[in-house]
């Protein structure tokens, strides 16, 4: 089994605190509503949403785990880092097209939430 990790960085006009609230703290409510085709459900594995809580995101088929980091950017926006980890079976090597498709899915999820926040400036403020 091989493990492949790919990282990307994106900028957003949305402040990091709003993105964090929407994409992390309230993800179990917001994301399945906005993207039922990507996310089946999000549930707490441990805790109730406070510090130390662990959430499990149950993706539809074909999605890989994503780690995110939200940093302050210019003009009140943010710099957002994403890291995807792919675990392959046997000697399978991921092709460039497969990696690109995974990155596009992760960015697509992020962009849907970003669009929602831009259209709803009071949400998660």
UniProtKB/TrEMBL annotation:
Q: Look up the domain of life of the source.
A: Eukaryota
Task: Report the GO molecular function annotations.
Answer: abscisic acid binding; protein phosphatase inhibitor activity; signaling receptor activity
**Which residues belong to any copy of the Bet v I/Major latex protein domain?**
1-62
- Name the residues that span the membrane: none
What InterPro entries has UniProt attached to this entry?
Answer: Bet_v_I/MLP, Bet_v_I_allergen, Plant_def-hormone_signal, START-like_dom_sf
Alphabetical UniProt keywords:
Pathogenesis-related protein, Plant defense
Which SUPFAM superfamilies does the annotation name? Answer: Bet v1-like
- Gene Ontology, cellular component aspect: cytoplasm; nucleus
On whether Cell membrane is a keyword of this UniProt record, the answer is no
Q: Which family does it belong to?
A: Belongs to the BetVI family.
Q: What is the recorded name of this protein?
A: Major pollen allergen Car b 1 isoform, putative
